[in-house]
Amino acid sequence: MPIQERIRAEVTGHPIVLFMKGTPQFPMCGFSSRAVQALKGAGASQLHTVNVLEEPEIRANLPRYSDWPTFPQLFINGELIGGCDITCELAEAGELARMIAEAQKA
C-alpha cells in the first residue's frame, strides 16, 4: 500500500489519531507528552496513536499529507486539528473535550 494511502487509512480508520514521537506510555518528546496528557484530560478513551519514530516512512511523508511540518499531529474524524500548542489551547478552552466526545460517539 502506498504511504499516502496508508496515512489516509490511519487518519480515517479511527475517530482520534495522534501521530507522535514514542507511545502514550513512553513519549519520546515533551510536545508528544503534553498532547497525550491534554487528550487524556479531555476524555479521549479511543485514542489511536502512531509512533513516527518506528514508522520512518510515515514520519517523512505525513508533513506532506497534512501540510503540517512538526509532530505531534492530531486528527479528529479525519481532519487535522494541529500540533501540541493547538491541542493544549483547545483543551484549556474546553473545546477539545467537546470535539472528543462528539468523535467518540460518532
Automatic annotation (TrEMBL):
Pfam families the record matches: Glutaredoxin (PF00462)
Molecular-function GO term, any one: disulfide oxidoreductase activity
Entry annotated with the keyword Iron: yes
Keyword entries, A-Z: 2Fe-2S, Iron, Iron-sulfur, Metal-binding, Redox-active center
Keyword Iron included in the entry's annotation: yes
Entry-linked InterPro entries: Glutaredoxin, GRX_PICOT-like, Monothiol_GRX, Monothiol_GRX-rel, Thioredoxin-like_sf
Domain Glutaredoxin: 16-81
Sequence positions that bind glutathione: 21, 59, 71, 84-85
Residues noted as binding [2Fe-2S] cluster in the record, renumbered to the chain: 29
PANTHER family: GLUTAREDOXIN FAMILY MEMBER (PTHR10293), MONOTHIOL GLUTAREDOXIN-S14, CHLOROPLASTIC (PTHR10293:SF72)
Family membership: Belongs to the glutaredoxin family. Monothiol subfamily.
Stated name of the protein: Glutaredoxin
Organism encoding this protein: Noviluteimonas gilva
